[in-house]
Amino acid sequence: MTHEEWSIDKSRLVYGLNRNDLHFLDIDDEGRLLIRIGSETITVEEIIKRIETEDEERVGYTSSFTLRLPQLISFQVLKLRRTFESAMNQTGYSGKFRAIYPVKVNQRRDFVVQVLQTDPEYGLEAGTKAELFLIKSVLEKEKHRLIVCNGAKDPEYLDSIAECIKEGYSTAISVESLYEARMIVERFDPKTTDLVLRLKPYLKVRGHWSHSTGRDSKFGLSIHDLFDTVELLKSRDFQGSVSTILGHVGSQITAIEDFHVFAVFMTRIFQELRDMGLSNLTTIDFGGGLPIDYTSTHQPNLMELYARSLLGGVKEELGNWPDGMVPDIMIESGRGITALGSMVMVKALEVRSVFPSIEGMDEDMKREVDEAIESMASASSVSELLGIWNESQVKKSWLAESMSDLREKERALASVRAGIRFQLSELESADLSSDAHLERLWYPDHIVIGNFSVFNSACDYVLVKQHFPVLPIIDLHVRPETTVRLVDITCDSDGEISQFHRKETEDIWFTQDFRPLTMTVAGMGQGIPVGSLENIHGSYFAIALTGAYQDVIEMNHNLLGDLPDVELLFTKEKKWQVRWLSGAESMEELLEEMGYVGFDIDEDPYMSEND
């Protein structure tokens, strides 16, 4: 593919922009990254310039920052309700839709309040005592909203729940074990208690956290405990207190059709429990699981398919219960609501090269390189080409006799690798799929030092191998020159983000230095494409879809704390508002957390501006 054949539409496909859960990101004619709210756009460059102009003198200013996008949280809340209500209308489903937000996904007040302001009926879910007190504070004037209290419970947690009920909050208690059921019946009045039976779904679904379901799950009642719990509740007159059953099959479920089987299972249990005497049971809470499309490869109507899959499963099982009650549907989507709510803007402080420039190579070495590349030109397949390369590596001793010799050998290796990549691109073979040998040849030759900490800003990348889309904010209109690794300033080898999802195309698209941008079969590779390496220093990379979990499970590794928070809003007056919320954590605050007091340091620990 020549440079002239490139287009912005190709860049959109490569980076996954302007569709699915990256629908709010796009590229302008000059190759700049855009954020779109409604029909209005603003470039990320303009946001950065406003912050530099208006906030550079603030305490806690640092060049990288977290950009908050609260209007995208509202967008997701409204989309979820519209999707389910539309699916219910179209399928003739007579039950009601209800939703609660699990605050564990992101407890930030601005996130929680945004959910509540968007939907007057939305409830909240607490998983711990601390989260319950958080929820009480934001619902003090809206006690009608449902609070579901999940999580392991001790007497103090139950006392706090009882206080909520006494104060008039609409509060439901999830029963997660027979032990909890025994404590509940001793402490609560069945006439004023709303119970949720949390069950272990005895099935397997496909997704990132599918291991968290089934009999070995840490959550919910095992089938034998369910029978014993129901008998206990009936014996203490609590059978009328049970309004809901809850099941959760894990986060980020990628096989949407699996929700259908899950819905059949839950509906069957729902009807059987009603037949066992829980006559006030009205609701099935399907927990979370709605995926976010981090790779921009799912179908665009993912949420609609999710809703239809659940409703289809419920209706299928209801057909086996002619006189059965149609349950209300409750959803606890968290990731699907807040992931779009923030992105991390990382300033590129420096670009480092892994290999030396091939210019000035010794003539004898250059002759050897040319011969090596020429020997590979005759290869007619990927396996033959790799065979020639591997054989040459075995025969050739790369142990250097001196530093100068090592530099020359590194120049030679870089040149030969470039020659192989060119030959691979010329083969256009169906065998050109990602494997360990090819990935080493395609591995980036350049490292970008970013002014951030992966552990603080995108820790799930390290903890659970969660992929996040990463893209440069400039030069997105040209065929990428090469790929890079984005590394942070921690003293930890895990402190980098270099994964890039290669989309599926009929023919493989390559960078200017012949690294694949796409594949004939989509998959994860290494190396973030950049339009022009020369322009990277001083520019920025955006790490998108970081609004779920990253804020609340961050780590101050190397005492690198929170980045500044900046909020982007499009106002009713149709103007962009870029508002500074808070500065980076200071070294004084971070040191005090570790038990070191007596410092007077306003500065944050991130890198200062490099000229």
Quick rundown:
By secondary structure, the protein is an alpha/beta fold. Helix content is 35%, strand content 19%.
What is the helix tally?
18
- Helix content class: 25-40%
Q: Can you summarize the main beta sheet?
A: 10 strands, mixed
Q: Provide the CATH topology of the largest domain.
A: TIM Barrel
Distance between the termini: 37 Å
Spans where pLDDT lies below 50 across 5 or more residues? none
CATH architecture of the largest domain: Alpha-Beta Barrel
User: What would you call the structural class?
Assistant: alpha/beta
Highest-level CATH class of the largest domain = Alpha Beta
SS strand fraction = 15-25%
What's the assembly state of these chains? Answer: single chain
Q: Rough shape?
A: globular
Overall number of structural domains: 3
Please tell me about this protein's structure.
This protein is of the alpha/beta class. The protein folds into three domains: 202 residues, Lyase, Ornithine Decarboxylase, Chain A, domain 1; 241 residues, Alpha-Beta Barrel (TIM Barrel), CATH 3.20.20.10; 88 residues, no CATH class. Helix content is 35%, strand content 19%. It has 18 helices and 24 strands. The strands form four sheets. Strands 4, 13, 14, 15, 16, 17, 21, 22, 23 and 24 form a ten-stranded mixed sheet that branches. Strands 5-6-7-8-9-10-11-12 form an eight-stranded parallel β-barrel, surrounded by six helices. Strands 1-2-3 form a three-stranded antiparallel sheet. β9, α8 and β10 form a beta-alpha-beta unit. The longest helix has 25 residues. It is globular and about 95 Å long. The model has no long low-confidence stretch (mean pLDDT 92).
